[in-house]
Amino acid sequence: MKNSYRISIIICSCVLLTGCATHKNAATEKSRHAQNTSNVSYVNEKLYTDSKPKLIEVKNPELNSLFPPVAYSASLGFLSTTPAMHQAPPGAPPLPFQNKKFIPGRIMELKNGKYLPQINAIKGYEPYDVQSNTNWVTWIYLSFGFGPDLGEKIYAYNIKKHSEFLVWSGGPLQQVFEYQLHGHVLYYGVQYNAGSTATTLIRSINLSDRENASIVTTKGTGSENIIEDFAVTGKWLGVIETPANHFTSPSLNERYRFEIGSTTNPVFKTIYSNINVNPFTLRARSGVWVWSDKTRGVTAYVLGSKQVLGLDSMPSYVKTDGHNIWWMAINSDNYGGYDLKSRQYLKLPPKVNPLGINVSGNLDIFDTKNTFYFYNNN
After folding, report:
1. What is the reported pTM?
2. What is the mean pLDDT of each run of 10 residues along the chain (378 residues)?
3. What is the DSSP letter of 19?
4. Could you tell me if 121 and 105 are in contact, meaning their C-beta atoms sit under 8 angstroms apart?
5. Which residues contact 312 (CB under 8 A, 6 or more apart)?
């Protein structure tokens, strides 16, 4: 679900990758233990409090108005991405950054306008879903739709060594359906179709020694369930499973399951089930998972209390820092927040009307039209 230049771009493709460790066919899987979904706690009382942490405004109109923050690294500061091209193609409306001076398709340090390297740069490609911490910056590199389409790629940049390497490269029919930077480990999911059969797999790579590992592979046709999304916190792997035809011929009435297993032993326990999940919205941090669907909106699962929380009815993009949960409606400018400790809803000061909410490193970031705000979530 994930970054843009305040222009939404939806890119769909299929994926092919060989090699797997654990293979799970939904038609033959036996080890499931469903939890009664009547245990969901719906948080209906809208007890709003002003966001307690001190919001800090970052002002750099020359850069921020064009390139909103997409990630934060304690080593590099706030990061943004530049578009794949300087101007719109013939016949298309002008872009808001038309003819501005920048190197297209790169990651930029907002504090000084410097660019991270991009090896084997491809015309018409741009970084997508940038993730970062003190040691690493990772991104998906994909085609904007003009120029060659050489498939999606994942890159990692070692901040201390100032070096970059290619983590994974797919073909034109391949898709990275999710990925997550977790310390020195990068988890990534790949999906591909072969006729009516859809396959998804989750892999990990230790970025320090580049050792790859396969975690789980699911394969199915029609109504057989396969993994559609995942998020990792600690040793725990949370997944969303949907019918395989979600990737081949989506239905308007798909039932999904949220499940938990471990990254080393992915035998999943079903925690929650409902209808029509919003694709690729699952997020996790510090034992908390949050996702969204089209029927009940924003839902969270807290591992410590083993409690499922129904937070809002809006289908939304969601984020969590493990203490607070934030969401922005998919079809409107509405947003919401929830403090897990105080069990109260949150709202930002009136001057902060976010266009986007992100959690990166130890910061919660709120992007507005010409500036952005953040606070430390530790």
Report:
1. 0.85
2. 29 30 37 44 60 73 72 94 75 58 89 91 94 97 85 97 96 89 97 93 97 96 95 97 88 90 93 92 97 94 96 95 95 92 90 92 88 85
3. -
4. yes
5. 297, 298, 327, 336
